[in-house]
Amino acid sequence: MRENELIRQVAAFPQTLPDGWLGIGDDCCIWRPGGPTALSTDAIVEGRHFLSSDPPALVGRKAAAAALSDLAAMGARPIGAVVALCCPARWDAAAVMTGLFQELSRHACPLLGGDTTAADQLAITVTVWGEAPAQADGRPGRLLRRSGGKPGDLLIVTGPLGGSFASGRHLRPEPRLAEGAWLASIPWVHALMDLSDGLAADAPKMAAASGCGVLLLPDEVPVHDDVPVMADTARQACCDGEDYELLAAVAPEHWPNLQLAWPFPVPPARVGWLLPEPGAFVEAGGRVIPLPWTGFEHHS
Amino acid sequence: MRENELIRQVAAFPQTLPDGWLGIGDDCCIWRPGGPTALSTDAIVEGRHFLSSDPPALVGRKAAAAALSDLAAMGARPIGAVVALCCPARWDAAAVMTGLFQELSRHACPLLGGDTTAADQLAITVTVWGEAPAQADGRPGRLLRRSGGKPGDLLIVTGPLGGSFASGRHLRPEPRLAEGAWLASIPWVHALMDLSDGLAADAPKMAAASGCGVLLLPDEVPVHDDVPVMADTARQACCDGEDYELLAAVAPEHWPNLQLAWPFPVPPARVGWLLPEPGAFVEAGGRVIPLPWTGFEHHS
Q1: Cβ distance A192 to A248 under 8 Å?
Q2: Do B108 and B221 sit in the same domain of this protein?
């Protein structure tokens, strides 16, 4: 398909924009920001993040969902998205874009522009931005960084982990936008991030950004049904990538309050603690040992 | 190079951010917008927009400059950039990022984040955003679209065209940010865009967005020194891509004022007119004929 024909198809996707905004078709898109704005860019590449045999609409969906997960990871409400599509002729570009658009629409995120070019290998870069939703009392919301954790904070996750690649669930990630916005609105939630490289890799990143160490509790990590029964389930739950659940650092004295107030169907689970000194450890069978797993680095 | 090592190197690039901003290292970057914001994403791919043998720093520079040109095309001042780097091991990723960062820095645009992944083919997607600079009298500035042209408007370009690929100039495009901001500040400049696919392809796009037709004057198009002397120079100046000069639609009665007030070293040149009826034409040897060239579509 020629570039111009694809752009015409994408420009016809149904969406309405607020006054003063400008979407697809000019050199830039335009929007009117209402406050501090969070933005992330996320690339997925054929053969690394999906297979050449995967359905194009699911690949587009994954590209959108993975990017939106970064907004969830700060508690931001999506405002807009643009996409750069580097697409070989053997891929159905319109199907990729349709899957991408539907996932953005499901989260009320308009597609405001993009770029498309031929390539030998399908690569999709989605850039999304958003703002903190206003608080219930009208005060401005908060964008929650990963660097605000404090020693003694409890680490919690929003859902079960592991088995995402083996099961194919990685093509249908669920960006935890509602959970992120809710967590970011609570003052004693101190840090937030999404899990893309596995808890064993990502929790130490939050700890390091917060100037802390970390102790993980593998026996308490909720294991996803996608992890095979016979597997080393704790290791897989801690080390598999692309869960796209959220990891939060919470003041420990409020943990019961968090559980009582939790408004989502899947309950949160505690998976570790932030420590006053650097280092990464696990508690297993009542003993504390250095973290025995290297992080999953699916990007390289 | 491993992803984490590259991120460490890039995070050490020298830049300072305003209070309340957040750069490289979290799930999103954060900035505080001051008004309507323009954003563009632009991808360049090995074998299409540059060669495997091109110097990596120049490839990074081109990726940044091509994206910044889209801000110039609306008169926006750069506020921030993020990059998604899909990079094979045979490319020097750090050199690509250094060239990219230096080009952004030259235009006072901080690099605020990004994503990096392995790939078989180098693809670089740069997303940039910016705001209209305030007017001299303090009034808010204007982001100038390509759709505001009126029948009878003169079409002008900011510099000579053609020969960008053949000469290698396409690796060192000069985003016309100062020219774009200046043009957007003038009320009788009605439409603005940058020339990436050649005047013969891009001028009809501006005309169509403005509900107009277009008459080009190939004999008046300034020809770049990079076009060979023996070439069909008018055709090359109109049809070669990646000039990254700006095209503006100007109220014709103000053309002398524009020339007198023009503050940049390279004078503007008039290259055509917008027409009340649809269609694309050229004037050659005193006769008007349909546009004889199809557009250059270097993206497909």
Answers
A1: yes
A2: no
